[in-house]
Amino acid sequence: MAEARIHVSVQTEDFDLGAEVAALRAGDAGVGAVASFVGTVRQWGSPGEGAHTLELEHYPGMTERSLASMARTGAERFGALGVRIIHRVGPLGLGDQIVLVAVTSPHRRAAFECCEFLMDWLKTRAPFWKKEISASGGAQWVDAREHDDEALARWGELPVPGASDAGATR
Questions:
Q1: What is the model's pLDDT at position 165?
Q2: Residue 23 CA to chain centroid, in angstroms?
Q3: Contact 4/72 with Cβ under 8 angstroms?
Q4: C-alpha to C-alpha distance for 37 and 115, rounded to whole angstroms
Q5: Residue ranges in the chain modelled with pLDDT below 50
Q6: How far is CA 44 from the centre of its chain?
Q7: What end-to-end distance do the CA atoms of the chain give, in Å?
């Protein structure tokens, strides 16, 4: 099987789901399924608190390498033909798109599973830092959540993203 086409981007600009999926599928007649996930900024706290902002930070270079490593691992594990990951950074408002994970494969099950696997991994292991900022100006860094770690654990032992030793696990 040919190596999967991997595209990773960390950016401040918004993305167009249709255009990204079209680019992922382009020229690959073996694609029988496309699965995608788009995460958006949601309301947290009390609805009466007004607008909120989410600010995302990352470590340039390291973050992209980590995401590419995750994408390759997912593609190999599930036989995906292509993986596209876009993660936004900077200040984001309610309803803004944060992340896109899109996967192509010959069959639907592999596409769904790879997409879910990558989102579980991104949510817990990707090197991003999130800060919630309330309308009143209060801010707090978002800690890891136990249920996200539990979701990742169901996939078994995983390589450390970006580790130079291909056999390293976390």
A1: 40
A2: 17
A3: yes
A4: 7
A5: 164-170
A6: 20
A7: 27
